[in-house]
């Protein structure tokens, strides 16, 4: 067989770790084991029927052709209205692009702007696709670890220290996947002050979880706090998370007109435009009754509380209550260095995650994949029963570990005494 030679860009990236975790869980389930899967990053609700009806109506009306390459005017106007109504921002249609998901919008932005070796600051813990999309577009992801005591958030001092003349973008994701952290108005103002000192740095603001929030904090938008940064901010959002439309693949970006134009050219030579039917559906969703969003957030809140209560009872795990998105990001550093009942050493979060899967039938995603070792991510987008059973398995797994013997990890010695 002729050997396949990968492009340099393709060789830089791998499959998304949550997809890999899901595949491992499914393979185990196919072998007959019961597996509780808490890896998912998408709403488990169906898209509301009235949104589906809008898609059906678009089909019936013959909206089955290529659309404008930046998206239909109907959709871009609906996005413009949404940004005005919900965020107090003014973006005409010329400053808006619809893509095949928020992910594709981010990809377009990097493809349109990064040159070889350009740096993109990716605060950790991060959604794994951020560094991958930077790398495939010839950029260099620069990871800055968020500290637990800072709520896993980027601080002005750490941002300042990371900026170099080669920095092109800072990625801000609030609410965050995987930590659930939400930046408050003061924190955003502090970051904006740093960015004002570095006018060559652009800001990619990923707000895909905008509406999935559990805190009572300020809802004031980055660009109403720092309107002077609008000429170098790209807002990214989409239908996937608020309207349970992950499979429809429609997201959007709003930013300076030259950037949107450059992204549209990239899009025009790759996918032409997103699906006409999906665009009609998202336009209807943005213009329609937002009750579904509120009700689903209430359901996530109940599941979050259930999971947090269960986690609080497990000695050795620590979790900051997520203020948004639908994940709990759990610190398992106290378990590193422990030994399983059959004598295996847990030397890392990936060992722990494997132990959870193969010994206890619980699938989660390791923190290393999010740039933050000694943690793991639990999704609470699952039925109540699965969450209760998942928490039970987690507790049993932790109790089954012996934290006694000294174990070497690299040059470190972990656990010299019983815990
Ligand atoms: C932080 C973050 N941004 C963007 C996306 C992209 O979502 P979509 O491409 O479905 O709009 C995701 C999806 O998981 C995400 O977690």
TrEMBL record:
Record-level GO BP terms: amino acid metabolic process
The entry's keywords: Aminotransferase, Pyridoxal phosphate, Transferase
Entry's transmembrane regions: none
InterPro entries: Aminotransferase_I/II_large, AspAT/PAT-like, PyrdxlP-dep_Trfase, PyrdxlP-dep_Trfase_major, PyrdxlP-dep_Trfase_small
Keyword Isomerase attached: no
Entry-linked Pfam families: Aminotran_1_2
Similarity comment: family membership: Belongs to the class-I pyridoxal-phosphate-dependent aminotransferase family.
Protein name: Aminotransferase class I/II-fold pyridoxal phosphate-dependent enzyme
Record lineage: Bacteria, Pseudomonadati, Pseudomonadota, Betaproteobacteria, Burkholderiales
């Amino acid at each position: 067989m002729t050997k396949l030679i990968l492009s340099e860009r393709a060789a830089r990236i791998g499959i998304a770790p949550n997809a890999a975790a899901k595949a491992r869980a499914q393979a185990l389930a196919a072998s007959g084991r019961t597996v509780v899967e808490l890896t998912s990053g998408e709403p488990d609700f169906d898209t509301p029927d009235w949104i589906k009806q809008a898609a059906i109506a678009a089909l019936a009306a013959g909206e089955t052709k290529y659309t404008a390459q930046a998206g239909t005017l109907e959709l871009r106007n609906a996005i413009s209205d949404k940004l005005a109504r919900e965020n107090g921002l003014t973006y005409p249609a010329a400053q808006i692009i619809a893509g095949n998901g928020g992910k594709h919008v981010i990809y377009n932005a990097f493809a349109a702007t990064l040159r070889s070796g350009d740096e993109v600051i990716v605060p950790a813990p991060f959604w794994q696709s951020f560094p991958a999309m930077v790398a495939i577009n010839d950029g260099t992801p620069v990871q800055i670890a968020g500290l637990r005591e800072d709520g896993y958030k980027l601080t002005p001092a750490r941002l300042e220290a990371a900026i170099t003349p080669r920095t092109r973008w800072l990625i801000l994701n609030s609410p965050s996947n995987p930590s659930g952290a939400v930046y408050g108005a003061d924190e955003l103002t502090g970051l904006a002050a740093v960015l004002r000192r570095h006018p060559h740095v652009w800001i990619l603001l990923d707000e895909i979880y905008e509406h999935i929030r559990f805190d009572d904090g300020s809802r004031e938008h980055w660009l109403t706090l720092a309107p002077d940064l609008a000429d170098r901010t790209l807002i990214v959002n989409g239908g996937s998370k608020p309207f349970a439309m992950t499979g429809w693949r429609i997201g959007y970006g709003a930013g300076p007109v030259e950037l949107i134009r450059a992204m549209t050219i990239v899009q025009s030579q790759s996918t032409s435009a997103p699906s006409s039917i999906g665009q009609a559906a998202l336009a209807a969703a943005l213009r329609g009754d937002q009750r579904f969003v509120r009700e689903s957030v209430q359901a996530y809140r109940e599941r979050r509380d259930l999971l947090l209560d269960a986690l609080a009872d497990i000695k050795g795990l620590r979790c900051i209550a997520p203020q948004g998105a639908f994940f709990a990001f759990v610190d398992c550093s106290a378990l590193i260095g422990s030994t399983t009942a059959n004598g295996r050493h847990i030397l890392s979060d990936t060992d722990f995650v494997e132990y959870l899967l193969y010994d206890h039938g619980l699938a989660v995603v390791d923190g290393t994949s999010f740039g933050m070792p000694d943690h793991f991510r639990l999704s609470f987008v699952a039925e109540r029963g699965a969450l209760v059973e998942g928490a039970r398995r987690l507790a049993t797994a932790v109790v089954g570990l012996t934290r006694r013997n000294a174990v070497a990890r690299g040059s470190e010695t972990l656990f010299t005494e019983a815990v």
